[in-house]
Design goal:
single chain; 5 strands; 3-stranded mixed sheet
Length: 110
């Protein structure tokens, strides 16, 4: 059931994310990083992904960025909504396009 501290499960928090990333290092550091960040995004304990707080308009807008230090490539998404794992969108943007930043029309605006 994950790591525990004082009876509380930590599998969706920082220690769980670090462990998930460590377990996947043999697949490559970018994959390990994405997995660790997805763990945080899937946790309601963090202000990212599933745990995001609402903006002033009452909707979720998230940002995520990723950098590959070996190649110098990077990418980011800004003000993205209606997606569970924005880090995966940023990674896909980095791998599949030459874009470094993508920002859709802010959610809640027509």
């Amino acid at each position: 059931a994950g790591l525990t501290q004082a009876g509380e499960t930590l599998s969706g928090s920082s220690p769980g994310a670090a462990l998930k990333g460590y377990q996947l290092l043999d697949r490559g550091y970018i994959q390990a990083l994405e997995a660790a960040l997805r763990t945080l995004e899937d946790s309601p304990k963090f202000n990212c992904g599933y745990g995001s707080v609402l903006n002033l308009n009452g909707v979720v807008e998230m940002d995520a960025s990723i950098v590959d230090g070996a190649t110098g490539r990077f990418s980011a998404v800004a003000a993205i909504g209606q997606i569970r794992n924005p880090i995966s969108v940023a990674l896909r943007l980095m791998k599949k396009t030459g874009q470094v930043l993508d920002s859709p029309k802010p959610t809640g605006e027509e």
